[in-house]
Amino acid sequence: MPDSLQQLHDDIVSCRACPRLVEWRERVALEKRASFREWDYWGRALPGFGDPHARIWIVGLAPAANGGNRTGRIFTGDRSGDWLYAALYRAGYANQPTSTHAGDGLAVTDTWISAAVRCAPPDNKPTITERNTCAAFLAREYALLENLRVIVALGSFAATAIARLLDIRPRPTFGHGHEVALPNGVTLLCSFHPSQRNTFTGKLTEPMFDAIFTRARELAEGAPAGSEAHAG
């Protein structure tokens, strides 16, 4: 049977391939943060979210233990998600600036949002093995997003995962705003991750983040990318 985003969704949700991640996501869902004790945590791997016809694919690191692992939607219910969806709203890609839970009415256009690792990891640090195990989901997602023009990698972990997936050579040096044009017309666009470590310190500001999505729109609409690489 041909693959589909629905089949990919179902396969991700049922995945139990990484014992450490399964144990952690389920333990957090059972113990819960005190401020969320009334929540029925998702506690499973998180599928992608967005527009199946998207030209822009946004890839983060992994769900937050009390964010996506709680709410059941990627980048939802945590500070990183607050930054991401507010930026997408300002850029015209989201119908509202907040994402609090899976039934909150949020809809996005021309964007698909996922992560290099689909389960919440302890200390927000997946292992290399866990990243590589999840790479099959990234590969299927990439193949199924048939209108893709731009991949926005949020953070160096996501950028490395995408570079490995597409066998980009030479491997790009990560930097905020760095672009890599691929022979198939897709551009990898790198951004600092909207984690509190970056936003609280001013390493990533709202104007810097907005500029990423302004550039993503330009690239999606056919503007030339800034550098060249090849896929092996």
What does this structure look like?
With 232 residues, this protein is of the alpha/beta class. It has one domain (5-231): Uracil-DNA glycosylase-like domain (Uracil-DNA Glycosylase, subunit E). The protein has helices spanning 5-13, 19-31, 68-71, 79-90, 128-144, 156-166, 196-199, 206-220; strands at residues 49-50, 56-60, 111-115, 150-154, 168-169, 179-181, 187-191, 230-231. Strands 1-3-2-4-7-6 form a six-stranded mixed sheet. A two-stranded antiparallel ribbon has the order 5-8. A hairpin with a 5-residue loop joins β6 and β7. α4 crosses α8. The longest helix has 17 residues, at 128-144. The chain is globular.
Topology:
Layout: H1 5-13, H2 19-31, E1 49-50, E2 56-60, H3 68-71, H4 79-90, E3 111-115, H5 128-144, E4 150-154, H6 156-166, E5 168-169, E6 179-181, E7 187-191, H7 196-199, H8 206-220, E8 230-231
Parallel strand pairs: 2-3, 2-4, 4-7
Antiparallel strand pairs: 1-3, 5-8, 6-7
Helix pairs in contact: 4-8
List keywords for this structure.
232 residues; alpha/beta; Uracil-DNA Glycosylase, subunit E; six-stranded mixed sheet; globular
Q: List segments where confidence is low: pLDDT < 50 over at least 5 consecutive residues.
A: none
CATH topology (fold) name: Uracil-DNA Glycosylase, subunit E
As an assembly, this protein is single chain
CATH class category:
Alpha Beta
Number of DSSP strands?
A: 8
Give the total of domains.
1
The average pLDDT is 96
Secondary structure: helix percent: 25-40%
DSSP summary: helix tally: 8
Specify the structural class: alpha/beta
What's the architecture in CATH terms? 3-Layer(aba) Sandwich
* Radius of gyration over C-alpha positions, nearest whole angstrom: 17 Å
Taken as a percent bin, the fraction of beta residues is 5-15%
CATH homologous group name: Uracil-DNA glycosylase-like domain
Q: How far apart lie the N and C ends?
A: 28 Å
Write down the secondary-structure element order.
HHEEHHEHEHEEEHHE
Largest sheet: 6 strands, mixed
**Biggest β-sheet: strands ordered side by side in the sheet:** 1-3-2-4-7-6
